[in-house]
Amino acid sequence: MVRSVPTRPDAAVRFIIWVDAVERLVEGGNTVGTSFSRRLFKILVAGILVAAASTAGASAALADDHEGSGQPEFGPNVYVFSPSTPQSEIQAKVNAVASQQVSNQFGTQRYALLFLPGTYGSKANPLNFQLGYYTAVAGLGLSPQDVVINGSIDVYNQCAGSFCTALNNFWRSMFNLTINVTKPAGCRE
């Protein structure tokens, strides 16, 4: 499922309200106490979403008013996945983002790949993908154990001929999730 980010300044606030609703759903309707680190996490993810929205450009979808839907729209560069999303759909979206962003060191596109609490991939069918420039991957659970990815998320050095360097493997982030590493056959070490 794709969420579109409104250009209105209340996008971050609406995101925090939406995450609070997800937390209550995960906790069976109980209100979860908000610690300083949890508030900081919400602000960080909201900042990523606003940055992704600022590079997305204007579109008719962003102009729509989504007040009545109950779910915020985060823009075309933010993907929110749930455990019920078919893995083939998740794999296709993360691969499409990676194919654009892996070599896009000086590009203006920004992406956020957000995972709701649950398990993604399995030992038999792992979720493996590369993390390109200006891409953030985040688990939206209360702790890193709430979002589990069975597979791998890789960042490889860039090579030019026989010269490889890791000095520019930055401008990407991954946080608040657990990865049970299952590498595909023939994967680079």
Indicate the percent of residues in helices: 25-40%
Name the beta content range.
15-25%
Structural class computed from helices and strand pairing = alpha/beta
- The span between the termini is 32 Å
Question: Low-confidence segments, ≥5 residues, pLDDT <50?
Answer: 1-9, 57-67
User: How big is the Rg?
Assistant: 17 Å
Commentary on this structure:
This protein has 4 helices and 11 strands, in the order βαααβαβββββββββ. α1 packs across α2 (36-54). It starts with a strand and ends in an 8-residue tail after the last strand. Helix content is 29%, strand content 24%. It has a 5-stranded mixed beta sheet with strand order 1-2-3-6-10, sandwiched between helices. It is an alpha/beta fold.
Q: What topology does this entry show?
A:
Layout: E1 2-3, H1 11-26, H2 36-54, H3 60-63, E2 78-81, H4 87-101, E3 111-115, E4 118-120, E5 127-130, E6 135-139, E7 147-154, E8 158-160, E9 163-165, E10 172-175, E11 178-181
Parallel strand pairs: 2-3, 3-6, 4-7, 5-7, 6-10, 7-11
Antiparallel strand pairs: 1-2, 8-9
